[in-house]
Amino acid sequence: MKVVLATLNAKYIHTSLALRCLKAYSGDEFDMDIAEYTIKDPAMNIVSDLFARDPDVVGFSCYIWNIEETITVIDMLRKIKPSVRIVLGGPEVSYDMDFWMERLPEVDFIVVGEGEETFHHLLTELRDTNKYHMVFGLTYRKRHPDGREEILINPPRPKLDLAQLPSPHRFAEDVPSLANRVVYFETSRGCPFSCQFCLSSIESGVRYFDIERTKADILYLIDSGAKLIKFVDRTFNIKKDYALEMFRFLIENHRGCVFQFEITGDIMPPDVLDYLAEHAPPGIFRFEIGVQSTNDLTNEAVQRRQNFVKLSRTVTKAKESGKIDQHLDLIAGLPHEDYDTFRNTFNEVFALRPEEMQLGFLKMLRGTGMRRDAEKHGYVYMERAPYEILGNNLLPFGDIVRIKRVEDVLEKYWNAHRMDHVLLYLVERAFPSPFDFFQRFGDFWEGRGWQKIGHQLEDLFARLWSFLEATTEDAAASGTSLTWRPDVVLGLMKLDYFLNHKYKPRKVWWDFTMDKPVLNGWMQRLADRPELVSGAFASLALGEKELHKHSVIERMPFDLETYLRTGEIVDAETLLIVVFNSGGREEGAPPKAFTLLQDRAATI
After folding, report:
1. What is residue 581's predicted lDDT score, i.e. its pLDDT?
2. In sequence order, what are the beta bridge partners of 328?
3. How many CB atoms lie within 10 A of CB 294?
């Protein structure tokens, strides 16, 4: 019996841990392949590949991000291979099973919840007896002699003994692609919390895999070339001693691999953070922290316990260590949160200056308390995945649309880190709050129709400058004085633009005003007297020809070095000198920026 385990990942670099768990449990007994696609692949290509594998059973792993595309594949597969047995599993179909069976007559079985043992039991019945009433955790169709069909939902299967599950990380066919894909890894199952918008709230208790096997699997993956391991544990730091031991192990054995964790910020012990600050190499750890809301009434309504003061201390301490990148999540549309209170949530979280801040929207997932109580808060939402809300009694659709504009420019600008210097200046000095900046810029962006067209790097800079010019004109027309200096903003944008290139850019998005003779004069002076810039610049030992080839010079209206060091704006004619990939530096290395006060250079 040929079995194919299939899923549609969100991106090619993603891998399916669920399919590998199933194959590890049953692959020795059945002829079993893993077939991974993406939601962007044409359905015809997916079905053609599945057809060529000639399976007797196809199991699809289903999530909110792939269910609708998977349904299209299922419909086509049933038509061209009527005899195939189609099995669904995964969180998207583990609730409302009768709904899915009625909506999808092409589907024969649904494996509910943890699938290893249930799927294995189902395969043995398909091979041997075709009797399914004792397969706990299974939903199936029973066809009676009179032609009547009945949907039967068996009792759930008890929780699995994780010590009995084989490793899903030892497949030789995975090794060639480990370096180019994300490896998903679980050290535990379950969640100690009961947030009503999350499926994890339905399963109580946390179970751990054997820690020595976990370590052995991680070493195998690192030795085999893995570069990014993402732990899918709902709260990696729920047990202090366990988390500390794992952090210590990863620090000692990382060999350049990066590890990402979901942690709960307000329960992270300070001494663990102290240990990481002292011992962790920079950049190997990434923390994903779900803040969701800072509104106490909202958190109480969704049964979410959170101490934002303690969470802020964790984020701040981790950031100050310079060792850990942090990704903070927000959810717009939770109960008791309107546009103004969400604005406050956004600003309080942005004040922590996380490396990434994801602004998501509440999804009414099947099986959650939020979906069950949707009517209580006046929610309307998409009937099909991803079940995103369209509004509630405090946050109408119009406000959701506005917040989506914030999400768009936040992702393009802040999370992409294309212009950190100028963004910090703008959110701190030019607008009432960070949210107001992103909102006004997002409104301007959509008003120009830019959401309908693509963009290159220079487009992003030019569009921000266009927005700021319009803001300046509006202020002049209304007689409002600016709290920021356009010349300073332009200077910081030039700095950010150059720092985004590994090689000297062929063009700039602003009008370059330095006359060629003046530029040549500066190139000659810098080649002759590099020590007037700095010792570091002089150590590059660049001749005039190399400077012309590998560097740019731009006038700045203020002392950039003082601003970057203290935040103070001091009026002074300054040269910004940026050197790209020269002086024996590593190919493609980031550029180096230097400054020189022009009055200091006048004696050359």
Report:
1. 82
2. 289, 357
3. 21
Cα–Cα distance for residue pair 116/59, rounded to 1 Å: 12
Report which DSSP code applies to 135: -
Span 290-299, pLDDT tens digits: 999 999 999 9
Q: Hey, how many other C-beta atoms are within 10 angstroms of the C-beta on 463? A: 20
C-alpha dihedral, 336 to 342 to 344 to 348, nearest 10°: 110
- Identify any residues that bridge with 60 across adjacent strands, giving them in sequence order: 6, 88
Band (pLDDT 50/70/90 cuts) for residue 76 is: very high
Bridge partners of 331?
Answer: 360
Measured distance CA(464)–CA(165) in Å, rounded = 53
- pTM as predicted: 0.93
Cα distance between the two ends of the chain: 84
Q: Is the separation of the CB atoms in 317 and 270 below 8 Å?
A: yes
Q: Is 394 helix (H, G, I), strand (E, B) or coil?
A: coil
Indicate the burial class of 227 (C-beta count within 10 angstroms; 0-12, 13-18, 19 or more).
Answer: middle
3-state helix, strand, coil in the chain (%, to 5): 45, 20, 35
Rounded CA-CA distance 588/582 in Å is: 10
Residue pLDDT, tens place only, 137-156: 999 999 888 889 999 999 99
Pairing mode, strands 188-190 and 206-208 = antiparallel
Separation of alpha carbons 43 and 70, rounded Å: 9
The pairing of strands 324-332 and 285-292 is parallel
What are phi and psi for residue 237, nearest 5 degrees?
A: -100, 25
Query: How far apart are alpha carbons 471 and 99 in whole angstroms?
Result: 52
* Residues 6+ positions from 456 with CB-CB distance below 8 Å: none
* The pair of three-digit structure tokens given for residue 5, joined into one six-digit string: 């385990």
pLDDT number for residue 588? 66
Paired with 559 in beta bridges are none
**478 CB-contact burial (10 Å; exposed 0-12 / middle 13-18 / buried 19+):** exposed
Q: Is 187 exposed, middle or buried (0-12, 13-18, 19+ CB in 10 A)?
A: buried
Would you give the distance in Å from CA 340 to the centre of its chain? 26
DSSP assigned state of 162? G
pLDDT given for residue 587 in this prediction: 63
Cα 257 from Cα 236, distance rounded (Å): 18
- Burial label, 41 (beta-carbon count in 10 A; 0-12, 13-18, 19+): middle
CB atoms under 10 Å from CB of 213, counted, come to: 16
Strand order, beta sheet including 592-597: 551-558, 571-579, 592-597
Whole-angstrom distance, CA of residue 188 vs CA of residue 210: 9
Q: How many residues does the chain have?
A: 604
What share of the chain has pLDDT > 70, as a percent? 98
Which residue carries 């893993």 as its tokens?
34
Question: Nearest 5°: CA angle at 452, between 449 and 457?
Answer: 90
Cis peptide before 282 (omega within 30 of 0): no
Closest Cα to residue 249, out of 283, 213, 293?
Answer: 213
Question: Judging by DSSP bridges, how do beta strands 183-185 and 228-231 pair with one another?
Answer: parallel
